[in-house]
């Protein structure tokens, strides 16, 4: 995979990227090394990687400053705010919004996803990857399978940021910025705003995300919390 910075001077590095990958981070030293290595395994795609740091205090920012061919954007904390600043810095026509704990088993996942949307010939079609969970030790397999299947349906409020959002720049401009006033679920809000003006399609590749929040908090406790959050969102109550 080729990652490009804006200030590189070699012929290869002055090629325009096909894809801008925008990733918000806050205290992610445990995830970033493996995340970068995983992206570097992607083949047959020219991409730039834009990491938006929200003021990490665990050494993440210092570690990122030592990496080559990665653009780092400093931003006040808040996933919506960080993503907006990263999108503003993106150069490619296609933008992928990604989480730092996302991984791709298929080395052609990004190539397949981008080609799929290009063949649609409609920039109002956005893509999300087929979700898989990892780090699931101690969880019920049936529960993980349920959430994975649900995430692939593409129905109302089933598309979230851990599936990756792949969108054309024109669609990003039409939908507008992510909300910066939401403490959580800015991704769900954005997915439904995309649905309002366009459509979602499931991309032909899998993305895995860590199930750490379920393991740490407990499956049923996290499920209850998620249900409450969705209910609060539906009535527009953000004070929680």
Q: How is this structure best described in words?
A:
The protein has 240 residues and is of the alpha/beta class. The chain is 38% helix and 21% strand. It has helices at 32-40, 60-65, 79-89, 109-120, 141-153, 169-175, 186-197, 212-217, 219-234, and strands spanning 2-3, 19-25, 46-53, 71-74, 94-97, 125-134, 165-168, 199-210. Strands 1, 2, 3, 4, 5 and 7 form a six-stranded mixed sheet that branches. A two-stranded parallel ribbon has the order 6-8. Helix 2 (60-65) links the parallel strand 3 and strand 4 (71-74). Helix 6 packs across helix 7 (186-197). The radius of gyration is 17 Å and the shape is globular. It starts with a strand and ends in a 6-residue tail after the last helix. Residues 5-10 have low confidence and may be disordered.
Gross morphology is globular
The secondary-structure class comes to alpha/beta
Backbone CA Rg? 17 Å
Instruction: Output mean pLDDT.
Output: 90
Give the termini separation: 42 Å
Q: What is the H-and-E element order?
A: EEHEHEHEHEHEHHEHH
Report the major sheet.
6 strands, mixed
Number of E-state strands: 8
| Share of β-strand residues | 15-25%
Low-confidence stretches: 5-10
Number of helices: 9
Q: Helical percent range?
A: 25-40%
Topology:
Layout: E1 2-3, E2 19-25, H1 32-40, E3 46-53, H2 60-65, E4 71-74, H3 79-89, E5 94-97, H4 109-120, E6 125-134, H5 141-153, E7 165-168, H6 169-175, H7 186-197, E8 199-210, H8 212-217, H9 219-234
Parallel strand pairs: 1-3, 2-3, 2-5, 3-4, 6-8
Antiparallel strand pairs: 5-7
Helix pairs in contact: 6-7
